[in-house]
Design brief:
The structure is a single chain. With about 170 residues, the protein is of the alpha+beta class. Helices cover about 30% and strands about 30% of the residues. It is built from four helices and seven strands. Strand 2 and strand 3 form a beta hairpin. Helix 1 crosses helix 2. The chain is globular and about 40 Å long. The termini are far apart.
Protein backbone atom coordinates (compact mmCIF):
# COMPACT_ATOMS: atom_id res chain seq x y z
CA UNK A 1 0.00 0.00 0.00
CA UNK A 2 1.41 3.37 -1.03
CA UNK A 3 0.46 7.02 -0.81
CA UNK A 4 1.55 9.10 -3.77
CA UNK A 5 0.47 12.00 -5.93
CA UNK A 6 -2.42 11.42 -8.29
CA UNK A 7 -1.81 11.48 -12.06
CA UNK A 8 -4.25 12.70 -14.70
CA UNK A 9 -4.70 9.08 -15.79
CA UNK A 10 -6.30 8.45 -12.35
CA UNK A 11 -9.10 10.99 -12.93
CA UNK A 12 -11.80 8.50 -13.91
CA UNK A 13 -11.10 6.25 -10.91
CA UNK A 14 -10.94 9.31 -8.62
CA UNK A 15 -14.30 10.61 -9.81
CA UNK A 16 -15.84 7.17 -9.35
CA UNK A 17 -14.50 7.06 -5.77
CA UNK A 18 -15.91 10.49 -4.86
CA UNK A 19 -19.29 9.66 -6.46
CA UNK A 20 -19.44 6.43 -4.41
CA UNK A 21 -18.64 8.41 -1.25
CA UNK A 22 -21.27 11.05 -2.08
CA UNK A 23 -23.92 8.38 -2.67
CA UNK A 24 -22.96 6.58 0.54
CA UNK A 25 -23.21 9.81 2.55
CA UNK A 26 -26.59 10.69 1.04
CA UNK A 27 -27.85 7.15 1.73
CA UNK A 28 -26.91 7.79 5.37
CA UNK A 29 -28.64 11.17 5.53
CA UNK A 30 -25.43 13.20 5.30
CA UNK A 31 -25.82 15.75 2.53
CA UNK A 32 -22.21 16.96 2.48
CA UNK A 33 -21.29 15.84 -1.05
CA UNK A 34 -23.75 15.53 -3.89
CA UNK A 35 -24.06 14.97 -7.64
CA UNK A 36 -22.38 18.35 -8.25
CA UNK A 37 -19.56 18.19 -5.71
CA UNK A 38 -16.82 17.23 -5.96
CA UNK A 39 -16.99 17.51 -9.72
CA UNK A 40 -14.62 15.96 -12.21
CA UNK A 41 -13.37 19.52 -12.90
CA UNK A 42 -12.54 20.10 -9.22
CA UNK A 43 -10.59 16.85 -9.13
CA UNK A 44 -8.81 17.67 -12.38
CA UNK A 45 -7.76 21.04 -10.94
CA UNK A 46 -6.44 19.25 -7.83
CA UNK A 47 -4.34 17.01 -10.10
CA UNK A 48 -3.08 19.92 -12.21
CA UNK A 49 -2.07 21.83 -9.06
CA UNK A 50 -0.28 18.74 -7.71
CA UNK A 51 -2.24 18.87 -4.46
CA UNK A 52 -4.07 15.53 -4.41
CA UNK A 53 -2.68 12.27 -3.07
CA UNK A 54 -3.98 8.72 -3.32
CA UNK A 55 -3.75 5.70 -1.09
CA UNK A 56 -3.40 2.84 -3.53
CA UNK A 57 -3.08 -0.90 -3.33
CA UNK A 58 -2.79 -3.19 -6.37
CA UNK A 59 -3.58 -0.23 -8.65
CA UNK A 60 -6.89 0.34 -6.83
CA UNK A 61 -7.33 3.81 -5.32
CA UNK A 62 -8.83 3.22 -1.90
CA UNK A 63 -8.65 6.79 -0.59
CA UNK A 64 -7.63 10.35 -1.41
CA UNK A 65 -6.63 13.56 0.33
CA UNK A 66 -5.98 17.11 -0.87
CA UNK A 67 -3.18 19.12 0.77
CA UNK A 68 -2.84 22.73 -0.33
CA UNK A 69 -1.51 26.11 0.74
CA UNK A 70 -4.43 27.82 -1.02
CA UNK A 71 -6.87 29.38 1.42
CA UNK A 72 -10.50 29.17 0.26
CA UNK A 73 -12.36 32.49 0.29
CA UNK A 74 -14.80 31.04 2.84
CA UNK A 75 -11.91 30.82 5.33
CA UNK A 76 -10.81 34.46 5.14
CA UNK A 77 -12.77 35.68 8.18
CA UNK A 78 -12.19 32.62 10.37
CA UNK A 79 -10.33 33.34 13.61
CA UNK A 80 -7.70 30.63 13.34
CA UNK A 81 -5.39 29.60 16.20
CA UNK A 82 -2.25 30.49 14.22
CA UNK A 83 -1.31 33.41 11.98
CA UNK A 84 -2.00 33.11 8.26
CA UNK A 85 1.55 32.12 7.51
CA UNK A 86 2.67 28.68 6.30
CA UNK A 87 -0.59 26.81 6.89
CA UNK A 88 -1.68 23.63 5.16
CA UNK A 89 -5.33 23.19 4.18
CA UNK A 90 -6.84 19.73 3.99
CA UNK A 91 -9.76 18.97 1.68
CA UNK A 92 -11.60 16.02 0.18
CA UNK A 93 -10.37 13.29 2.51
CA UNK A 94 -12.29 10.28 1.22
CA UNK A 95 -12.12 6.51 1.44
CA UNK A 96 -14.22 4.42 -0.93
CA UNK A 97 -17.18 2.93 0.99
CA UNK A 98 -16.01 -0.61 0.12
CA UNK A 99 -12.77 0.02 2.03
CA UNK A 100 -14.00 2.09 5.00
CA UNK A 101 -13.32 0.80 8.50
CA UNK A 102 -9.81 -0.43 7.66
CA UNK A 103 -7.84 2.53 9.02
CA UNK A 104 -7.19 4.08 5.61
CA UNK A 105 -8.43 7.54 6.66
CA UNK A 106 -6.05 7.36 9.64
CA UNK A 107 -3.18 6.45 7.29
CA UNK A 108 -4.01 9.41 5.03
CA UNK A 109 -4.16 11.74 8.05
CA UNK A 110 -0.85 10.37 9.37
CA UNK A 111 0.61 11.09 5.95
CA UNK A 112 -0.83 14.64 5.94
CA UNK A 113 0.45 15.42 9.44
CA UNK A 114 3.92 14.00 8.69
CA UNK A 115 4.03 15.95 5.42
CA UNK A 116 3.02 19.15 7.25
CA UNK A 117 5.60 18.67 10.03
CA UNK A 118 8.39 17.77 7.63
CA UNK A 119 7.63 20.86 5.52
CA UNK A 120 7.44 23.12 8.59
CA UNK A 121 3.79 24.15 8.32
CA UNK A 122 2.47 25.96 11.41
CA UNK A 123 -0.84 24.14 11.33
CA UNK A 124 -3.31 22.05 9.40
CA UNK A 125 -6.70 23.62 8.77
CA UNK A 126 -9.86 21.97 7.50
CA UNK A 127 -13.61 22.01 7.64
CA UNK A 128 -16.13 19.24 8.07
CA UNK A 129 -19.89 19.13 7.72
CA UNK A 130 -21.88 19.92 10.88
CA UNK A 131 -24.21 16.99 10.17
CA UNK A 132 -21.33 14.50 9.88
CA UNK A 133 -20.76 13.54 13.52
CA UNK A 134 -18.43 10.68 12.54
CA UNK A 135 -16.00 13.09 10.86
CA UNK A 136 -16.11 15.52 13.78
CA UNK A 137 -15.20 12.75 16.23
CA UNK A 138 -12.47 11.53 13.86
CA UNK A 139 -10.75 14.94 13.81
CA UNK A 140 -11.29 15.67 17.50
CA UNK A 141 -9.65 12.35 18.44
CA UNK A 142 -6.65 13.53 16.42
CA UNK A 143 -6.49 16.75 18.51
CA UNK A 144 -7.99 19.14 15.99
CA UNK A 145 -9.65 22.10 17.69
CA UNK A 146 -13.15 23.04 16.58
CA UNK A 147 -13.40 26.75 15.81
CA UNK A 148 -16.23 28.49 14.00
CA UNK A 149 -18.78 27.83 11.29
CA UNK A 150 -18.61 28.60 7.58
CA UNK A 151 -21.19 28.02 4.87
CA UNK A 152 -21.13 26.51 1.39
CA UNK A 153 -24.64 27.38 0.15
CA UNK A 154 -24.23 25.30 -3.02
CA UNK A 155 -23.69 22.22 -0.88
CA UNK A 156 -25.98 22.68 2.12
CA UNK A 157 -27.98 25.08 4.24
CA UNK A 158 -26.18 23.59 7.28
CA UNK A 159 -22.84 24.97 8.45
CA UNK A 160 -19.42 23.41 8.13
CA UNK A 161 -17.18 23.48 11.21
CA UNK A 162 -13.62 24.73 10.89
CA UNK A 163 -10.88 22.81 12.66
CA UNK A 164 -7.19 23.48 13.17
CA UNK A 165 -4.29 21.50 14.59
CA UNK A 166 -1.25 23.54 15.61
CA UNK A 167 2.04 21.88 14.64
CA UNK A 168 5.04 24.24 14.59
CA UNK A 169 3.76 27.55 15.95
Amino acid sequence: MTIKKVKISDLKQLHSLTKSCANDMMDNGIFQWNEKYPSKEVLQTDIELGQIWKLEESEIIKGIIVLTEIEDKEYINVKWLTKNLKNLYLHRLAVHPNFQGNGYAQKLMDFAENYASKNMYNSIRLDTFSQNKRNQLFYEKRNYVKLENIYFPNQSEHPFYCYEKVLNA
